[in-house]
Design goal:
- By secondary structure, this protein is mostly helical.
- It folds into 3 domains: 50 residues; 133 residues; 40 residues.
- Helix content is 80%, strand content 0%.
- It is flat, with a radius of gyration of 31 Å.
- InterPro entries: DUF2231_TM (IPR019251).
Length: 236
């Protein structure tokens, strides 16, 4: 392999050490690229994107997109309606369509993750509610998208008021869905590997403690008669 660090040298005049500053940063970068090229594609991706490579599922990768896109849709559509800005509402349409697509991807990834991510009984109901709200967000986003496409962005009067009410419901559901997702991760550590390892260790210790308690109870039950009791029984 061509050794970039040996064939491309930098000299920094006026400095006591040529390893620092811009030249040092470039040399470190070239060294990183050289080491990267020596890896397999999988190892290369893990070095460049360690966070994504460490994911057990793709749900966390998609979840932020529908939150951002659908929130922007509601705010921009509401302001466009109030200010009578048609261009704002047209832009809001693209946020809605994109948000619906990412919502579908997020829900699909979430349904897969629900069957693969380890979680305790305390968080199961939270996960179920999160799942149902996510599906509701998807259905409402698709419905609003279809309504907008069929109306060719010409929604006005009472229909527009009803449309904005449904958009506000969508934003509210989105907020509660995101809140439950945050609760699972930051409150219960769902999908966080160190927490999962701690839970496994705690379960193992709990099981070991129960086995030890049962063993001690068995020993107490099967223990021989004390010498005093033996002597008393013998005299009788």
């Amino acid at each position: 392999m061509f050794d970039l660090s040996n064939n491309l040298q930098f000299s920094v005049h006026g400095g006591a050490d040529s390893a620092g500053g811009f030249a040092g940063a470039v040399a470190d970068f070239l060294s990183f690229i050289e080491n990267l090229l020596a890896l397999s594609p999988g190892e290369m991706f893990a070095n460049v994107m360690p966070g994504i490579a460490g994911l057990d599922n793709l749900h966390p990768l998609f979840v932020h997109f529908p939150i951002a896109l659908l929130s922007l849709f509601f705010l921009l559509d509401l302001l466009g309606s109030i200010a009578n800005k048609i261009e704002w509402r047209k832009t809001a349409s693209w946020f809605l369509y994109s948000g619906a697509i990412f919502a579908a991807m997020t829900v699909a990834a979430g349904l897969i993750a629900a069957d693969s991510v380890a979680h305790g009984g305390d968080v199961h109901q939270i996960m179920e509610n999160h799942e149902h709200l996510g599906i509701a967000v998807l259905l409402l986003a698709v419905t609003l998208s279809g309504w907008r496409l069929l109306a060719k962005n010409q929604i006005s009067g009472g229909a527009n008021t009803l449309y904005l009410i449904f958009a506000a419901i969508l934003a509210g559901l989105l907020l509660f869905t995101a809140d439950l997702g945050g609760l699972m991760v930051y409150g219960y550590g769902v999908g966080v590997k160190p927490v999962a390892e701690l839970n496994k260790a705690a379960a193992a210790l709990h099981e070991h403690g129960e086995q030890t308690e049962i063993h001690e109870q068995n020993q107490a039950t099967e223990s021989p008669t004390s010498p005093t009791e033996h002597h008393h029984n013998h005299m009788h």
